[in-house]
Amino acid sequence: MLVIAATERELAHVRRFETHVCGLGPVEAAISTARALAERAPSSVLHVGIAGARSLEPLSVVLGSEAIYCDIEARIPVVDRVAPDAVLLEHVHAALPDAHVLPIGTSAAVGGAGSCDVEAMEGFGVLRACATAGVAAVELRIVSNRFGETEWRFEEAFERLGAALDRLDVV
What we know:
By secondary structure, the chain is α/β, with parallel strands linked by helices. It has a single domain, classed as 3-Layer(aba) Sandwich (Rossmann fold), CATH 3.40.50.1580. 31% of the residues lie in helices and 29% in strands. The protein has helices at residues 8-11, 26-40, 86-95, 123-133, 154-166; strands at residues 2-5, 18-21, 44-53, 61-69, 81-82, 100-106, 118-120, 136-146. It has a five-stranded mixed beta barrel. β1 (2-5), α1 (8-11) and β2 (18-21) form a beta-alpha-beta unit. The model has no long low-confidence stretch (mean pLDDT 93).
C-alpha cells in the first residue's frame, strides 16, 4: 500500500507504509499521483490528510464514500465524482469502525466544497488518477477544524492520523 498526502507534515506520523507527497490542490495531486503510480506500481493507495467539516467534531475520522470535485461546473457531462474501491473501503472501515463514511468535497479553495459536509483539497485528483490507472484507492481524513473556525488543530489531527494508520494492515 502506498500512502499519499499533500504534505510531509501529514505523513510525519506514518510509520509502516511507503509514502508519497503529492502536493497541494487537485491538479498537482492528480499529476503527482499519476507519476507515482507509474513509477512504483502499488497494489493500493490510501490518500490521507486533514480536512474541514461543517458538523463533525474536530479529530473525527472520515472515510470517503466518494470524492466530489467541487470546482467544476459545466452544462455538458463532466467527471466530477469518483468512488473509492469498495473492497479497500470495507477493509479500512473494518479497522476503523468508528470512522464516518461520507462524501468528501475536493476544492482548490478553502470553503469551496459546496454542500459537502467534509472538505479537502486533493482527494478527487488522487482517486481519479488511481481509478484511471486501475489501482484501488480510498481517502481517509482527520477533521482539523470546523468551517469558519480560526483555530485549526493541526498537530492533534496529524497524531490522530498516525494512530489510525497504525491500526491498518498492509493491503
